[in-house]
Design goal:
- The protein is mostly helical.
- The chain has one domain.
- It is about 80% helix and about 0% strand.
- The chain contains 17 helices and no strands.
- It has helices at about 5-30, 40-55, 65-85, 90-115, 125-135, 140-145, 150-175, 175-195, 200-210, 215-230, 230-240, 240-255, 260-265, 265-285, 290-300, 305-320, 325-369.
- α7 crosses α10.
- The two termini are about 35 Å apart.
């Protein structure tokens, strides 16, 4: 399957933003920031830029919504191309997808347990088994963020994978627009029930129940269909400026949706879309610089491994540089993201290679026995 460079760059930007956000939150919550100084033009400009940096950095968690959109896009794109060659063998599809997900997820657990320089705030107990299985929605208040809070996303992914054959067939029968409207209506209805009618732990809405994030995932699937039908038109909008400016203009309105529980029903889709438009627009610019694009695309290709392993490291380091000035933090953040990207890439490549070799060896072992 042909890879779209700009799509990998967008994934790379999204994972870098997520890693940076977790690093920033640790530093900012415990760091020492100089008091504001509005006296004089340069002092006022510096203070304004500092507050702008704080506000923009605080939005980094919206990049998770970008990942949900891109996951729907990638799954729809690859499965649709397979369907063009004949009927989809869903048993083989599930096998390949879960072999892609679980081994690296288990490796991340091992790395967390044995690796130095990681933040550890919880003990290993019975929840560890639930975490290994990806069942972090069981006893959700105690397991959802257990050990590594980023791992909640794995729970969301496996639910979408389980639902995907139904979503795929429905999207092809209804068509992209009708499917997107129906998926959004279902997702918003479930969010309304869990937020307003019968309020529950917010972790269910965040991703403990995948239907609550169905609008973003369905949007990604819809974009994949449009990209297959109108690739030049869609990429012209996404990569040549209109998407970026649209995202920037709409972002303040999306943030207003945090005002109440009723409007919060729509906030994850709205902020995810705005962040998606901005990052894809930036990816379009970066894609013109081939060397930089390929470097960031590597982070995108191996974003799964980086996502799984980064947070305990950046929390550990962030707590130890809390007295450093902002410029020093930013420099350390760049170096840290680069090192963790390489580490995550090596782990993911080694894991995939090991799984592939074991699967190839299985028939020989069976014959020899």
């Amino acid at each position: 399957m042909k890879r779209l460079l700009w799509l990998d760059v967008a994934k790379g930007l999204a994972i870098i933003v997520v890693v940076y956000f977790h690093f920033f939150r640790t530093y900012f919550e415990h760091g020492i920031l100089p008091p504001p100084d509005w006296n004089g033009f340069l002092a006022g400009l510096t203070t304004s830029l500092r507050y702008l940096w704080l506000e923009v950095s605080g939005l980094g968690f919206h990049a998770v919504g970008v990942f949900i959109i891109l996951s729907g896009w990638a799954l729809m794109q690859s499965t649709a191309r397979r369907a063009e060659q004949g009927s989809v063998d869903w048993r083989a599809w599930y096998r390949s997808r879960f072999l892609r997900l679980y081994p690296m997820y288990w490796v991340a657990h091992v790395v967390y347990v044995i690796s130095p320089f990681t933040a550890r705030f919880e003990k290993i107990d019975g929840r560890f088994v639930l975490s290994l299985l990806g069942l972090r929605f069981i006893d959700i208040s105690n397991t959802f963020y257990y050990l590594n809070s980023s791992w909640w996303y794995f729970t969301l992914l496996i639910q979408f994978y389980l639902l995907f054959p139904f979503l795929f067939i429905t999207a092809r029968k209804l068509g992209p627009i009708t499917y997107l409207v129906c998926a959004c209506a279902l997702g918003f209805f479930v969010r309304y029930l869990l937020l307003v009618v019968h309020p529950v732990d917010g972790m269910w809405v965040q991703g403990g129940l995948a239907l609550c994030r169905l609008p973003e995932f369905a949007l990604g699937m819809t974009l994949a269909i449009w990209d297959q039908r109108y690739p030049k038109r869609l990429e012209r909008f996404l990569l040549n400026g209109p998407a970026f400016f649209t995202g920037v203009i709409l972002y303040p309105g999306a943030l207003l949706l945090y005002a109440s529980l009723t409007t919060y029903i729509f906030v994850d889709l709205a902020t995810g879309v705005c962040c998606f438009l901005v990052l894809v627009g930036i990816a379009g610019i970066i894609s013109r610089a081939h060397f930089l694009a390929r470097v960031i695309a590597l982070a995108g290709i191996y974003s799964y491994g980086l996502y799984l392993i980064h947070q305990p490291y950046v929390i550990w380091l962030g707590l130890r540089i809390r007295e450093q000035p902002i410029w020093s933090f930013l420099l350390i953040a760049v170096v840290t993201v680069a090192i963790l990207t390489i580490w995550g890439m090596l782990l993911e490549k080694a894991t995939n290679r090991l799984v592939s070799s074991l699967l190839r060896e299985r028939p020989k072992a069976a014959l020899s026995s």
